[in-house]
Amino acid sequence: MSLLQVQDLTFSYRPKAQHAPTVQDVSFALQPGSLVGVVGPNGCGKSTLLKLLAGQHTAASGEIVLAGQPLASFSTRELARQLAYLPQRPLVPAGITVEQLVQYGRHPHQGWLRQWSIEDRRLVEEAIATLQLQELRQRSVSDLSGGQVQRVWLAMIMAQNTGMVLLDEPTSALDIGHQTEVMEAIHAMSANGRTVLIVMHDLACAARYCDQLIAMADGRVQAFGGAREVISKELIERLYNTPVDILAAPGDGAPVIVPRRLATASAPFIHPKELPHV
Fold first, then answer.
1. Rounded distance, CA 261 to CA 238, Å?
2. Do 162 and 194 touch, CB atoms closer than 8 A?
3. Which residue spans within the chain are E strands per DSSP?
4. Separation CA 164–CA 33 (nearest Å)
5. Which tens digit of pLDDT belongs to each residue from 75-114?
6. Which of 90, 101, 258, 277 has its CA 20 to 30 A from that of 125?
7. Which helix (H) or strand (E) element contains residue 243?
């Protein structure tokens, strides 16, 4: 049974204007324990799709079913127990420490009859250790680098311990070393049974770590399937409107996408807008 089912989802920021919807007729289903990447050019609707799945926006039409229930039927707290969402640029609460922010991931699971527990502590400690934040735990989050802050947010999501996880470009502020650490942690989450939907721009990284890819353009799904099968020269050139070469990485054969140069030293590229008018 699919953990998340999306059927004919459509959404527009300007529904009365004469513009194409930001997300249009999107359908797919995600199986438990899968790591699925969402790729595509800037402005194609990737982040908007995640906001719809997280309940941040309401679709104009279509249906989202999570764990067998319509998404709209969940209260805010109930949804936070089922689904964790990390946007691109979350706001850091003033004065909060690393440990306090990670602990916040346990908030949806607590209430009048259930206060802080041994299980809460275990999940927080596990997340801090996985993201290698032990030496930073008492530091103020506002004093950290962008890459460190991103790791703290991801640790909070890990501590939340939901069956469904939505991540919007979680490695965008990280260097190559920390990017690998974070992707390994995300892969481990899915290996332990959590379903992860992650927006990515690094196509080679997406192909290497993801089980499946959803390729989007102009608000629509252009391809959905096995990560290494979806990435092809024809599809990438069509999505990004640029010529590429696709090479096989040593070791595991993962596709590496290399954009071709549009200019040479002897024949510099001239943008069409810069050409003289005749």
1. 17
2. yes
3. 4-11, 23-30, 35-39, 61-66, 69-70, 83-86, 164-168, 195-199, 212-217, 220-226, 244-248, 255-259
4. 9
5. 999 999 999 999 988 888 889 999 999 999 999 888 666 6
6. 90
7. none
CA 229, CA 239: separation in Å to the nearest integer?
A: 15
How much is the pLDDT for 262? 79
Task: Give the side-chain half-sphere CA count within 13 A for 50.
Answer: 26
User: CB count, 10 Å around CB of 44?
Assistant: 22
Q: 164-199, pLDDT tens digit by residue?
A: 999 999 988 788 888 888 899 899 999 999 999 999
Q: Write down the residue that tokens 């997406």 correspond to.
A: 206
Structure tokens at 271: 């943008």
- Tokens standing for 162? 């939901």
Strands 83-86 and 164-168: parallel
Token pair for 22: 């930001």
Mean pLDDT across 71-75? 95
Q: Which helix (H) or strand (E) holds 110?
A: none
In terms of pTM, does the model score above 0.70?
yes
Q: How many angstroms separate the CA atoms of 184 and 198, rounded?
A: 13
